[in-house]
Design a protein that fits this description.
By secondary structure, the chain is of the alpha+beta class. It folds into 3 domains: 47 residues; 164 residues, Immunoglobulin-like (Sandwich); 235 residues, 3-Layer(aba) Sandwich (Rossmann fold), CATH 3.40.50. The chain is 31% helix and 32% strand. The strands form 6 sheets. It has a 6-stranded mixed sheet with strand order 10-9-6-11-12-13, sandwiched between helices. It has a 5-stranded antiparallel sheet with strand order 3-4-5-18-15. α3 packs antiparallel against α4 and α6 packs parallel to α7. It is elongated. The protein starts with a helix and ends with a helix.
Length: 471
């Protein structure tokens, strides 16, 4: 009798175990439906003109996939190349040809270093903007002598030479002109006033009011002659007319850029002033300081700084900079339940930059890298997340955001920036069963209650049976 009762209990235990463990933890894709709950678009503005957009382009409830498109735009307007005329006003005085310098391990004269940098500047300008035209003028003092006195003629228009007959963007013509300056020998002293006049006269050959005009002075000296003035001791006789000429050209709308090389803080021995000024002090009386120039831009540089100043800093002043977004990195993060139950695949490749082919499982992200995005440019790509053939039943009946967060790092005209949107579930999905899927907790309770009742009844009946047999 006892064996019979034990057999009943064992059978009931097996039934109970089978019932509570027979409900699968996964659901077949074919047995589910999918609905779109929210169609949200994520927008992130970054920098002044950068815009990021992430939106759903298709939700296929039959095949159970969602297509999402990411777009990055530079909404700045593309600037037209400005028209500009540039005259390089190059010092050909004796100090430029006699001072030797060491540039990147190579020995050369200061004049050679300046002309080498000027050639690089010309090449960059012509390559960047075909609307820029260039002229070459050199200055120092005349090499001619007065037949009556036998002295070198100074303080006249002969102290400047216009090497190019006109403004041009022909690289060969400009290179030939720079070579002429390299080979030319002028006088010992420096008549900048006349050089500025000659440069301005060359600019006047183009009367287009929409063309910006520039004179770039490249010199290692301060004026010691001027119109009507022979050798001067760096006094006001040359300081005043030169400074006045700078102010006059500035008033006429000329953009002046002056690069002054190796002007020391040592005293000028030939000066008759007391106390004797330094070369730098006299230069500042004429050109002003870097922060408070007489007009335009002023650079006080060493020999080693010539190339960078001419080819980069002065170049930047002449070129109209476009609004550029560089080094754009977009990280798109997915929730864990999307990673576990959906398959990611690129739908279309990015037209600009590169996107990681697979999801990084370390942080559940994909990364889109865009090296540069110019004005008016747009980059885009799309991907698909498809429901797996078997998926976790825990996502049944709940909203499923398709992404968790978007982070954007970038450089805006060289300045780093960062933006993110931590509240951007672009799409929310609701996955519903086509047939009733038992809720294991609810139905298990019913089964346990039912089986417990049966056990109680059988136990009670067994008790009665045993008691009857005893008597």
């Amino acid at each position: 009798m006892k064996k019979t009762i034990y057999g009943i209990f064992i059978a009931l235990f097996i039934v109970l175990f089978t019932c509570t463990s027979s409900f699968a933890a996964t659901v077949a894709k074919a047995d589910a439906t999918m609905t779109l709950v929210e169609d949200n678009t994520c927008n992130i503005i970054f920098g002044q003109y950068g815009e990021f957009e992430k939106k759903m382009i298709e939700c296929n409830t039959t095949e159970k996939y969602v297509d999402i498109q990411l777009t990055v735009r530079n909404n700045a307007e593309e600037l037209e190349d400005k028209k500009a005329d540039v005259v390089l006003l190059i010092d050909s005085s004796r100090s430029m040809s006699t001072n030797e310098v060491l540039i990147d391990g190579e020995k050369m004269t200061r004049k050679e270093a300046v002309l080498q940098s000027a050639q690089t500047l010309v090449d960059k300008l012509i390559s960047a903007n075909p609307n820029i035209k260039i002229g070459i003028v050199e200055f120092a003092t005349s090499t001619e002598t007065d037949p009556d006195t036998g002295y070198t003629i100074e303080g006249t228009d002969l102290d400047a030479k216009t090497i190019t007959s006109e403004l041009t963007n022909d690289p060969t013509t400009i290179t030939d002109a720079l070579n002429t300056v390299s080979e030319d020998v002028m006088g010992a002293r420096t008549n900048l006033e006349v050089g500025l006049d000659a440069a301005y006269a060359l600019l006047q050959t183009n009367d287009d009011p929409d063309t910006e005009k520039y004179i770039i002075t490249l010199t290692d000296a301060i004026p010691n002659t001027a119109r009507g003035v022979t050798m001067d001791t760096y006094s006001e006789a040359t300081q005043v007319p030169t400074r006045n000429k700078i102010l006059e050209l500035d008033k006429a709308g000329v953009n002046l850029i002056s690069m002054l090389i190796e002007l020391s803080d040592s005293e000028i021995e030939v000066s008759t002033e007391d106390p004797k000024p330094t070369y730098k002090e006299v230069a500042e009386k004429i050109f002003g300081t870097v922060t408070a120039p007489t007009a335009g831009e002023v650079y006080y540089v060493s020999d080693e700084e010539v190339e960078d100043t001419v080819t980069n800093q002065i170049y930047a002043s002449l070129i109209q900079e476009q609004y550029i977004l560089d080094n754009i990195v977009i990280k798109d993060y997915f929730p864990q339940n999307i990673i576990d139950n959906f398959t990611y695949a690129q739908l279309t490749k990015s037209n600009i930059g590169e996107v990681t082919a697979e999801v990084n499982t370390n942080d559940n992200s994909i990364t889109w890298t865009i090296p540069s995005l110019g004005p008016g440019e747009e980059a885009t790509f799309s991907y698909r997340i498809s429901l797996n053939d078997e998926f976790d039943e825990e996502i049944v009946g709940i909203n499923l955001p398709t992404n968790e967060n978007v982070e954007i790092t970038y450089d805006e005209n060289g300045t780093p920036g960062f933006e993110e949107n931590d509240d951007c579930p672009i799409i929310a999905l609701d996955v519903l069963p086509q047939v009733d899927i038992p809720n294991t907790g609810f139905y298990t309770g019913l089964y346990v209650a039912g089986i417990t009742s049966v056990i109680a009844i059988i136990g009670f009946a067994s008790y009665k049976l045993v008691k009857r047999n005893r008597f």
